[in-house]
Amino acid sequence: MTRYSDYDRFAWVYNKHWGNEFTHLALRVLEKLVFPHLPTKARILDLCCGTGQLAQTLISRGYQVTGLDQSTEMLHFARENAPAGEFIVADARSFKLPDTYHAIVSTFDSLNHIMSLEELTDVFRNVYAALRQGGLFLSDLNMEAGYRICWNDNFGIVEDDHVCVILTSYQPEERMARFDATIFYLEGGWQRSDVTLLQRCYSEIEVRSALEVTGFTQIQVYAYNEQLALEELTGETERAFFVCQKPVGVSSY
Predict the structure, then answer these.
(1) d(CA 163, CA 152)
(2) Within the chain, which residue ranges are assigned CATH 3.40.50.150?
(3) Strand-pair partners of 67
(4) Residues 241, 224: contact at Cβ < 8 Å?
(5) What angle do CA 140, 143, 148 make, to 5 degrees?
(6) CATH of the domain spanning 146-200, picked from 3.30.390.50, 2.20.25.110, 2.60.200.30, 3.30.559.10
(7) Which of 72, 103, 199, 242 could bridge to 112 as Cys pair (CB 3.0-4.6 Å)?
């Protein structure tokens, strides 16, 4: 099983430029689909938590938050950003936690970084096992239209002590997206670091089927539009939010 080691080298850039980017949108969706169903001080697992900005926002709302990520460097920043959180270094494809969580969330297309449907199903099994009966799971995923529209571009970030050049691309035949970053940073002279991150595009049917075979019920799928809020998916949907429930009266794997 491949370890996602490139995330360690990318962590400080992600923390500075991307860590807060998706939190406001994730919160709008969580406020509609998850928070109304949670008890006070509910336990939430932030799966693939990255540098912890969402975890801190959940903590500020009174929830007990555990963050899980495979990148030790991402979690270094997460512990600084959310000092009241609990953070665990583990792989989403193989983690094992007791069924104590009222909700598990995985945001900012984190699960697109899982490279096969079999491994994505393994993630869902681990999530299912860690949820209480009746617990909720919410995840967002980039969809085909999102990759076609947004992942054939390049852009740069220029600051006094670092420069970051990004090239994104998408291969529809392989349903594979690529994020290439070249980073120059000032540390005893100018240094260079190159990072490549991959994402896999999954269809709504594939994700639904994987959730169903795992045992999840009440599976709902939404697109999110800044003006229209939650709406049904279409062929033009760039990002989908999947929310489902572990049924009551069943045991964990």
Answers:
(1) 20
(2) 6-142+203-245
(3) 46, 87
(4) yes
(5) 140
(6) 2.20.25.110
(7) 199
Largest CA distance in the chain: 61
194 HSE (CA, 13 A, CB side): 2
Q: Are strands 162-171 and 176-186 parallel, antiparallel or unpaired?
A: antiparallel
Sequence length of the chain is 253
**CA distance linking residue 233 with residue 236, whole number of Å:** 8
For Cα atoms 30, 80, 160, give the angle at the middle one, nearest 5 degrees.
Answer: 100
Write the DSSP assignment of 9-62 as a string of letters: HHHHHHHHHTTTTTHHHHHHHHHHHTGGGSPTT-EEEEET-TTSHHHHHHHHTT
Q: Say if CB 213 and CB 194 are below 8 A apart.
A: no
Task: Tell me how far apart the alpha carbons of residues 5 and 131 are, in angstroms, rounded to a whole number.
Answer: 28
pLDDT in tens, the chain (253 residues): 555 667 898 999 999 999 998 898 899 999 999 999 999 999 999 999 999 999 999 999 999 999 999 999 999 999 999 999 999 999 999 999 999 999 999 999 999 999 999 999 999 999 999 999 999 999 999 999 999 999 998 999 999 999 999 999 999 999 999 999 999 999 999 999 999 999 999 999 999 999 999 999 999 999 977 665 688 899 999 999 999 999 998 655 5
